[in-house]
Amino acid sequence: MTRAEVDTEVAELQRRVAELEHQLAQVRQERDEYEQIVQRAPALISRLTPDGRVVYANTTCEQIIGYKLEEVIGQELLPILYPGELMEPVKEYLRIAAEGGDVRDYELALRTRDGELRTLTWNSFHRFGPDGELLEIVSLGVDVTARKASEAAHQRLQEQIIAMQAAALVALSTPLIPISKGVVVMPLIGSVDEERARQIMETLLSGISRSQASTAILDITGVATVDQGVAHALLQAARAARMLGAQVVLTGIRPDVAQTLVSLGTHLEGIITRGTLESGIAFALAREQAGAKE
User: Fold this and answer.
1) Most-buried pick from 105, 224, 267, 275 (CB within 10 A)?
2) What would the pLDDT profile of 146-194 be if each residue is shown by its tens digit?
């Protein structure tokens, strides 16, 4: 080989080396860029062996769990992060992974180094060897603790609003109306179940006690069905009212209601009945006036 040929081959080798070095520099730059992206990603990114040993964890992972990578690399971190019953969902997670299924939006609660309980939603994919054996689980976890707390607070607020609305509706459906100083009227509308009967009793007794009423009119014109339960509730209310010194007047007894009460064998002793609310009010006012004259 001539000197010129050697120089040419050397120059070609130098060119290829320079090209490879340039390509290597590009690969290193891309690697560094991807590493920065992975490290700074807002999601927790980890790589685990099938038995749960840590191969890699990014900065977000360290920040959430409270352990540095050098502390957990090669360690079985799962029993530490998921003590006691927290481990049960993890076992299911690993079972899915071992069977070759990727995990999507799998929610797990972990305990950090400081003892704080945090909830993460996981997505993962799995690396398998040529023989199909699971080599590694690559997991991405998003911390949803704040969102879950916000959702729980929102749910509690909704439940409180619903409860307040229900209480308001009950109060509106069981009003106690003062007619005069000594007379109150409670017009009942709709159905009367056990809870409604309890509300009727509480509202009636509270109103009698507060207003020192001597007569309480229960008008059942708007009660669609009067059965044994309703009759029992009315008797209980009347007996309780008498204990506070008030006379109960039952109005709005329709012919079909009267027949029902008779067929049920309901004894309305101690309760004055009137056909209409107007006649009941007239009776109560006359009774009040008579009492005033005495």
Assistant:
1) 275
2) 888 888 888 888 888 877 766 665 555 667 888 888 899 988 887 777 7
73: region left, alpha or beta (phi > 0 left; psi from -120 to 50 alpha): beta
**Cβ contact 174:196 at 8 Å:** yes
pTM above 0.90, yes or no: no
Among 20-34, 175-189, 199-213, 247-261, where is mean pLDDT lowest? 20-34
Which of 273, 143, 291 shows the shortest CA–CA distance to 220?
Answer: 273
- Provide the angle, in degrees to the nearest 10, between the axes of the packed helices 145-173 and 194-211: 70
Rounded Cα distance between 107 and 87, Å, is: 12
Assign residue 114 the CATH number of its domain: 3.30.450.20
Distances (CA, A) of 181 to 171, 201, 208, 249, 273: 21, 20, 11, 16, 21
Q: Which is more confidently placed, 67 or 192?
A: 67
